[in-house]
Amino acid sequence: MKRMRRLLVIGCLCLPLIALARPAAVPTVALEPVQQQWLEEHRSLRVGLVLQAPYAQFDRRLQQLYGANVELVSWLAQALGLDLTWRNFADQAALEHALKAGEIDFAPGLTQTPASLRLWLFSDPYMRVPQLVVGPRSGAVAVELEKLEPSERVVVRTPSPLADYLRSNYTHLNLQGVPNERQALQALLGAQASFAVVDEAQLSRLSRESEFSDLVVVGDIGLPQLLRIGSRRDWPLLADVLERGLQAMPAKQLEQLHQRWLQPKYPRLSESAGFWQNLALLFGLLLLCAIATLLWQRREQRQLERSLLQAREALAERHGREQALRLSQFSIDHSTVGILWINWDSHVRYANHAAEGMLGYAEGQLLDRPLRDFEPNLDMDRWLELWRRVRAGNGGAEQFESQCRCADGSVLPVDLSLSFLRFRDAEYLVMFLTDVTERRRTVAALRESEAQLKGIAGNVPGLVFRLERNPAAGELEFPYISEGSEALVGYTPAAIQHPQMGLRNLVHPDDRSDYHRVQDLALANNQDWSWQGRIVTRQGEQRWADIKASTRRLADGRVVWDGVVWDISQSKRAELALARSEGQLRELSAHLESVREEEKARIAREVHDELGQMLTVLKLEVSMCELAYAELDPGLHERLASMKRLIAQLFQLVRDVATALRPPILDAGIASAIEWQARRFEARTQIPCLVQVPDNLPALSDAKATGLFRILQEALTNVMRHAQAHTVQIELLRTGSTLRLSVIDDGVGFCPDQPRPTSFGLVGMRERVLMLGGSMTLDSEPGEGSSLSVSIPLD
């Protein structure tokens, strides 16, 4: 934009016509096939123009339109091969009425607004018209609107969006509205305003008149007017074609268009040669003034130096005293503590705002009021006694609590402090009043809270304690032990609070190391702690106790632990008995499972050996009969062949029964058994199995190998029945002295927390794992598959 403004202004004085303004060469516009086809069908288009200089004007002599928008559309028509019909309108409303009536197809030079978006399809902006600040050439300087004084009047055309923008963004401006831009510049020339705000297009038109030759551009408000081409909303392809045409228009062509029609006649202030001459002259005058001032100061400095030094010392001393006095007075007036200055006759000579507010008096009503009006307990005799005692106390203060009577008759509890003061040959007692209403209320609430806490702690069926570290000695102490200690352990609170006692000496000797470990860790890290174990009462009885303590930090930085000691002897005995019972039941179950597996193995061997031998003999007998008599009777031959097939099926059935009772592959090791079971599962379900087993696996006991194999069978059975999986991954991994079996599927999954009363597969697997001394983990989510992990010790 600066380059365009530096071009010669003379070329803008002549208004070129359409024929003279068209460029010599127009580039070809590249269109899409759909756009090109539409353009072939709609070569004849109607253009609407609002007659407004310098965008569009009509030359009656030549009967021809000319202007910036006319030249732009003519270039587009030549580039796109359009046959245009021109229609001009007096204003924007008439143009939009013609659009609604279907009389025009597109119009240039429009400004996009929320209301116009419902009527037009707008192109990207093709021209930016700045809003310029104009001022008189003489004495003009660069202007920023936010720094203008209210006395400097600014004229602008109203009503207009520009005026609305200035009112909303520069609320301090002294704006004056005029009907048009000409009158705005005339008001500026007539000294009726300091500045005028005009858009660049109208300024270009008016600057060609000699009347306005003494004006200059002194600023830009930063709100440009963006000109676009609007087209019919029912022809979106027309908008695309016009947009392609605008994009093909060279930037130099648009710059020349802007220079011919919109460039003002006179330059900006910073581009004026007179501006720099005036600025150089101003600097020269300032330099001469500075030299003259320096010489005059040197001449006068010696004469005034002594008098100024004396005056400065006197002023500094006086200023220091006044400043100290003002600070003291301000501090006293705005202190939150009530302050009264009282004479020996008990009359108030000064009262700050806090004292007046506490006693409910308006400003100045406490002055010259006797003390007994708001402190009935201080009669004249007692006041004189206080006066003599405080005055003879060598600066000491007298403090006591009292109750003052407020202006409305209410009673205010306060702390009174009296100090003697001698000021300007007069003596006073300064009374400081502190409102203790909230403090008394807090103390009462604290006492009530302590009473409630003691009542609650006394009725708790256990021992409530508070443990804290002594800040001075760094040792632990019990500032509070509830009365329930006698019922729980037989010791009084005072006995437990003794430094040689505490809770540690109540713990059973066999459990003290664990108790010390838990408590020391909590005390070292300032955290909560919980412990269960045995304690010994004063009578020597053993009890199970649950000790829990929570930590908190006090305002002074100390850390305390509030805790409770519960008697859980009955529940602990029941828990231990239940654990023993569960252990016995699990041992019995393990024994029964071992016996059952042994019985299965025995039956499998007998079925395989005995039945196998008998079937082998039977098969040999049938073969001998077939050799001896088959040729004599064809029917007998068929019967013997059928018996051989039945014997073969019976062989397979015997093998299946023996394998189901105890697979012989287990004798080859658990790794081979897992591989064999995975291949059988694949053959039965057509679900691929990925198996990973270690190469060198130590030999397992028969019980552990059989248990792991049965767990794998149950897991694969669950996958086949419920998972609807696509793949299964089986992994056997040795980690130290632990053997872990994992079965993972990508099926539908389930919610492990949801009870399934009719399914005992998971319960059976978990019991098998517990019998083997291991652990089982099951992870699953609906839609995310399932993962079963079993870990058993190798030893």
UniProtKB/TrEMBL annotation:
Keywords assigned by UniProt, alphabetized: Kinase, Membrane, Signal, Transferase, Transmembrane, Transmembrane helix, Two-component regulatory system
Residue ranges of domain PAS in the record: 449-526
Domain named PAC: residues: 529-580
Highest taxon above the source species: Bacteria
UniProt signal peptide: 1-21
Transmembrane segment boundaries: 275-296
SMART domains: HATPase_c, PAC, PAS, PBPb
Name the UniProt record assigns to this protein: Transporter substrate-binding domain-containing protein
Organism from which the protein derives: Pseudomonas shirazensis
